[in-house]
Amino acid sequence: EVQLVESGGGLVQPGGSLGLSCAASGFTFSNYWMSWIRQAPGKGLEWVAHTNEAGSDTYYVDSVKGRFTMSRDNAKNSLSLQMNSLRVEDTALYYCVGWGLVNCWGQGTLVTVSS
Amino acid sequence: DVVMTQSPLSLPVTLGQPASISCRSGQGLVDSDGNTNLNWFQQRPGQSPRRLIYKVSVRDSGVPDRFSGSGTGTDFTLKISRVEAEDVGVYYCMQHTHWPHTFGQGTKLEIK
What we know:
Helix content of chain B: under 10%
Structural class of chain A: mainly beta
Largest sheet of chain B: 7 strands, mixed
Number of helices of chain B: 0
Oligomer: heterodimer
Distance between the termini of chain B: 35 Å
Number of strands of chain B: 11
Number of helices of chain A: 0
Shape of chain B: globular
Radius of gyration of chain B: 13 Å
Distance between the termini of chain A: 40 Å
Largest interface: A-B, 16 and 19 residues
Radius of gyration of chain A: 13 Å
C-alpha cells in the first residue's frame, strides 16, 4: 500500500523553527518527485516546495525562500522540511505529496505559529 | 505566478444531475515537451486531496468514468455526468507547467 506519513508539526512562536518529516512506503521513493503543499485553516492549497527524484533540484515558493529547506534521503525513503523564522501566516496543515506512477498524499501535519 | 481562476466557487447540484467546473489559467500551460500540465483534485470533507485527472483529460486509476476533463489553451473544464452523494467536497484545478505550481481557489460542490 502506498503510504506517506508526516510528523513534526506543533505549536511554535513567531520567529521560531520546526522540522517536518515524511516517511514513505509502498512505492519506489527514489522514482518520485516530492512536494510539500500546505493548506491554511479553511483555505485552499498552496505549493510550498518541490524536489526532483535525486534531490538535486529544489524549488520554493517566494514566501518561504530563504526560510525553508527541503531535503530527501532516498536510502531512508524520507523527506524533510526545515522551517526557520516562522511567521503567523505559515500556520497550515502541511502535506507531503508524491508524484510518479501515482499521485499520493499524506494525512498532513498541523503547524501553528502563534504567540 | 500563473493565476488559476475557477468558477463557480459554490456549486449546489441535485443528485443524479450533471455538474461542470471551469478553470482558466493566466497563461498557456503547454510545456517544452508539448504536454499540458493541468490537473484536477477532489478534497472530501476531512480528507486529504486526491487527484482525479491529469494532463487535462486522463483519469487516475480508480476514478469513476462519470468524471471527465477537457480544454485547451487557457480554458479547462471538469465535468461530472451524474452527481452522487460521495462527490461532495471541494474541487481544485492545478497547473504544474510553470513554477511556482499553482492551484485554483477551489469550487465547493454540495447537494441541493
